[in-house]
Structure formats: C-alpha cells, structure tokens
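Please decode residue identities from the backbone states below.
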C-alpha cells in the first residue's frame, strides 16, 4: 500500500488571522496574498474584454476576490444559448435580451457591493480601446475573435501592461500571460524585470488566422467546464500579478483538452521573436489601423461590414464550406450568399449573409451594427 499523508492545508497547521472584512478571510490566509495582497487587489483595476464564457467566470472570481474596479466590455445581449456556460446570466436576462455587460454589472453588485463595476456595451476596436482601457492595470482576454485579440496585444505592449490571453472552443482551452518585453509603463502598478518579460501574441503567431479557418463556439460547440478552467487559470495569473508575485506566474502557453485529458505546457521563454513587428519594432498595426467600419444600408434592413487594413480579402471557397454547414449558401463570381438556417435577427427577421471577395460582408435582417458584427464573428470569425 502506498503511504499517503494529508497535506499541511488539511491539518489546520496554518495560523489564522481575521481581515477587517471577513469576506476575504480565507483568501488573506494564503501566504502569497495576506493583508498586503488584499490591499493591492482593492487598489487595482482590471479590464475584462468580452463578457461571455471566459469573461463571466473571470468577472465573478475577480469581483469576489475584491479587485477594486472591474471594467467590463461586451457588445452582445444575453441569449438562451449562453446559459449553459456564461455563469452570471439567468433565464430572465435571456428572455429580456439584456446587454451582457449590464446584466453582469447588476449580478456582480449582488455578489460584492464594495467593487466598482464599469460596464460598456460596445465593440472594442482601434477607436474605442483607448477609452475603455484607460487606467486599467491589466487586460484579461474573454474575446471571441482574433482581430480584437491582436488589437489588445498591441495595446498592452504599447502601454506596458500585462495581457492575459485565453481561448476555448469545443473541449480544448488555451491560455498564456503576456508581460511585454518593452517593460512596464512608467506609472504601471504591475512591475516586472526584463528577465521576467515574455513573448507577445505576435511573437508566437505573427498574423491572425484568415477568417473562416478556425472553429468557433457557434460552429464547433464548447464544453462549459473548459471555459471555466481557462478563466480560472487566467484569474490565478491576474491575482499573482496584482499581489506582485511575478515569479509565480505561469510562463507557458498552456493548452488542454478536457475530453482526451491531454495537457501541454509550452515554455515560451525561447519563443521571443527577435524581429517581432509588435514588441520589438513597436509597430502597432492593429492599434493604428483604421477601425473596421460598419454602416447601415438604407432601405435594405442590412449592415455592411468593411474590414480594417489588417484584413484584406476572403478565400471564398473556404467561406462557402464554412457557411454551408449553417444554411443554403451559393457561390457567385466574387461572392458567397445565403440564409442562415434557424437564425433570427433582433427584429425577428431571417438572417442572410453576403460575403465579397474583397473582404466586405453584408448581414441582412436588421440594422443594428453590433448585432451584425456579432453574426459575422460567430459564423465566420475574424
Ligand atoms: Zn512580440
């Protein structure tokens, strides 16, 4: 028989102390946090970019942990298909179609009323990122599209704040903390030494995958436990960074599949690209790009999406294959067109999509710009 011993934590060997606010008692008992770490959490501000599966779990944990200010940005409204994994939302939120950022703010206020929650119902793009991220000590990625991830990577490197990448689809999750090589900003609350810096997202993946080439949760599904695990890992890194235990931060690109039980941790310390466009040459293509634009099309109950400079053209064969799984789509000379089966717009109309080779797309069924961007990202991805 192997001889097991209960660990110290199970034997009550750690001394107890009572914080001024009893809600943090079990957390301040942790040697890595303590009263000092709790104060640092209270004085910090975290941007949660996207409030879906990763964002709701992260926001809930960080709010309960006592992060002083949470900035939550999301462009979507709560839908019934979110409830399986987006833990802050209720059936009532879905019935009423409340914006996710707003529903999250109301729910979090009930969990910890001492935390300041700033909710923005909007798209994060080159035009809005400065306003929503101003004053944030770090960025937690709860996004569903690559274009915005590369934008936030640019923003974090340009401003010297950490960016905690996270992604989940089907039964797989992936996460990686980024401590920009340019070092922390002058007034940054989170400080790290040169030797503690990591590669950025563009060091590892110089360009985002072309639209339509990667599965999304809407096309491949997603297991709720995977998103919870990714968010829990991200939040652990956030807390370590805020309390100043930089040495404890996971310095790997960590990926796992909760169905096959495969885990991988790729050491990224040797992966820094000496010619990285972003963190070496400080060329912030996504931050400096013209924001991708969306505009209503008069008399058509439709929205036209025009790509920013970072996305050029579509591979229509690939787009046709992706969309064919979701409705009757036909290939034209320089376009793919069809109706998304079972999909309804906010005004109750069928939803059709017309995608052009030059990178434009027209989403028909409503004139709501954020809704149209959301349909595009869900079915094609960006
Ligand atoms: Zn880089």
């Amino acid at each position: 028989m192997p001889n097991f011993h209960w660990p110290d934590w199970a034997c009550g060997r750690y001394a107890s102390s009572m914080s001024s606010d009893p809600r943090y008692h079990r957390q301040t008992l942790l040697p890595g946090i303590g009263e000092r770490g709790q104060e640092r959490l209270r004085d910090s501000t975290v941007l949660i970019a996207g409030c879906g599966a990763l964002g709701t779990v992260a926001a809930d944990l960080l709010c309960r942990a006592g992060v002083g200010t949470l900035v939550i940005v999301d462009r979507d409204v709560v839908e019934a298909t979110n409830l399986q994994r987006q833990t802050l939302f209720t059936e009532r939120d879905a019935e009423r179609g409340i914006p996710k950022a707003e529903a999250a703010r109301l729910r979090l206020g009930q969990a910890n009323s001492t935390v300041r929650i700033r909710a923005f119902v909007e798209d994060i793009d080159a035009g809005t990122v400065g306003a929503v991220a101003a004053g944030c000590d770090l960025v937690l990625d709860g996004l569903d599209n690559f274009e915005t991830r590369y934008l936030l990577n640019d923003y974090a490197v340009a401003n010297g704040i950490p960016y905690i990448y996270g992604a989940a689809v089907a039964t797989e999750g992936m996460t990686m903390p980024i401590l920009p090589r340019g070092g922390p900003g002058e007034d940054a609350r989170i400080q790290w030494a040169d030797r503690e810096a990591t590669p950025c997202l563009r060091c590892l993946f110089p360009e985002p995958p072309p639209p339509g080439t990667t599965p999304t949760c809407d096309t491949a599904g997603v297991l709720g436990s995977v998103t919870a695990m990714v968010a829990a890992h991200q939040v652990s890194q956030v807390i370590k960074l805020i309390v100043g235990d930089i040495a404890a931060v996971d310095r790997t690109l960590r990926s796992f599949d909760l169905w096959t039980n495969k885990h991988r941790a790729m050491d990224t310390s040797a992966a820094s690209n000496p010619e990285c466009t972003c963190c070496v040459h400080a060329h912030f293509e996504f931050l400096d790009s013209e924001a991708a634009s969306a505009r209503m099309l008069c008399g058509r109950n439709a929205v036209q999406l025009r790509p920013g400079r970072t996305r050029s053209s579509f591979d229509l064969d690939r787009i046709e294959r992706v969309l064919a799984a979701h409705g009757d789509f036909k290939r034209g000379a320089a376009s793919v067109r069809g109706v998304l089966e079972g999909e309804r717009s906010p005004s109750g109309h069928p939803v059709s999509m017309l995608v052009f080779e030059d990178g434009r797309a027209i989403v028909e069924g409503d004139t709501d710009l954020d809704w149209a961007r959301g349909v595009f990202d869900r079915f094609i991805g960006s």
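Observation: The chain has a mean pLDDT of 90.
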